[in-house]
Amino acid sequence: MADIIAETDRLILRTIEESDAAEQYRLLNTQAVMARLGGPKELHEIEAKHAKAMQWYATRGFSFLMLIEKETGELVGHAGIKLVDNPLAPNQGDHEIGWLIREDRWRLGLAEEAVRAVIDWAFGRVDAPHVVALTSEANVPSWKLMEKLGMVRREDLDFDDPDYPPEDRRTIQYSLTKDQWGSQK
């Protein structure tokens, strides 16, 4: 049974269940949605990520979450917290937030709504001192949202990831402290 972590005006943010992999594969694993994330994944890759997320939630109390639209009951994205684990990142172990929204729900403000709830969770129950968000330099909508959320660009944390195509190789980071977030409220 999934735990509900947060609710917003339009979304329920709940923990991942084993049955979610097929739904994520069907609704979120498109070329457009995954374009800046290395492209669509195989079902077994999504299942492995879900297993890891469920383990993280069980052992650490945080993970990525499924975003369920209240009005329709449909999966419209995922967002959450993990630890920076890219071996090329200079800040491994920092609390990293991330998000992904279904293409037919883009430009409706759902990502911002979900991520605000995730940040509240990170600085509340998870008690993270700060959070970071990683994206490719080419992913303008992603880093524009980071800026809108009050996150600060951290060029000192940038790195190149050869696992991505040249246009997405440069990974940039933004950060936000608990105090910075609290001063916005």
UniProtKB/TrEMBL annotation:
Compositionally biased residues, Polar residues: 172-185
Top-level taxon of the source organism: Bacteria
Pfam families the UniProt entry points to: Acetyltransf_3
Domain N-acetyltransferase: 11-179
InterPro entries: Acyl_CoA_acyltransferase, GNAT_dom, N-acetyltransferase
Region (Disordered): 157-185
Protein name per UniProt: GNAT family N-acetyltransferase
Classification lineage: Bacteria, Pseudomonadati, Pseudomonadota, Alphaproteobacteria, Sphingomonadales
